[in-house]
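Show me a record, fold above all:
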Amino acid sequence: MCFGRCARCVGYKLLILALLCIVANTLLYFPNGETRFASEHHLSKYVECLHGILGGGFLVLIPAVVFIGLHNDDCGCFGHEGCGKSCAMLSSVLAAFVGILGSGYCITISALGLSQGPYCFTHLERNWIYPFTDSSGGYLFEYNKWSECQEPQNIVQWNVTLFSILLVLGGIEFILCFIQIINGILGGLCGLCCSHEETYVC
C-alpha cells in the first residue's frame, strides 16, 4: 500500500481547491467586477472574514505542500522501502489538522454568509442593510424577494453563487484532509511495524 503516493495525490487536489477558494473569495470583493463597493465598505461582513483566502486558501496550502513533498516511492509496510519514512507520514497528520481547521473555517463562514444574505441598498428602506437577516436562509428559495436589493446589481445571485462554491470547496477540502489523517496514521504505523527489520532515526 503506497501511503506516500496517496498523500501526494491528496496534496495536488488540495492545491487546486485552495487556489479556487482564493479566487472565489477575491471575487466576492468585486460584485459585477466593480471595486467601489469594497472601497466604500458596502460588502457583507462575512466577505471580509477572508474565509476563502485565509481558511480554505493559505491554511490548506500548508498541508498541500507537505503532502506533495512526501516521496511517492513510500510504499509502506508491505514494500519495506518506506519503513524509514513513518515519521514523515505521521507528521503529515499534523499538517492535515491545519487543513481541517482552515476548511472548517471556510465552511462555517460560508454557511453564515448564505444564512444572513447580502448587504445591499434596498428601495424600501432607502439604506444599506441586511434585508434577509431574519429569514434564516429562507430567502434562498424566495427568488421574488431578491429584487429588494438594488445595489450592487444582482448581489444576491453573486453572493449565493460564490458562498455556495466556497461551501462546497471547503467541504471537499475537509474530507480530503480527514482522509489524509487516516492515511498518515496508517502509513506511520505501518512503517513502525517494520522497525524490527530496519533501524531508523526520526
The radius of gyration is 22 Å. The chain has a mean pLDDT of 84. Helices lie at 3-28, 36-39, 51-69, 76-79, 86-116, 155-192.
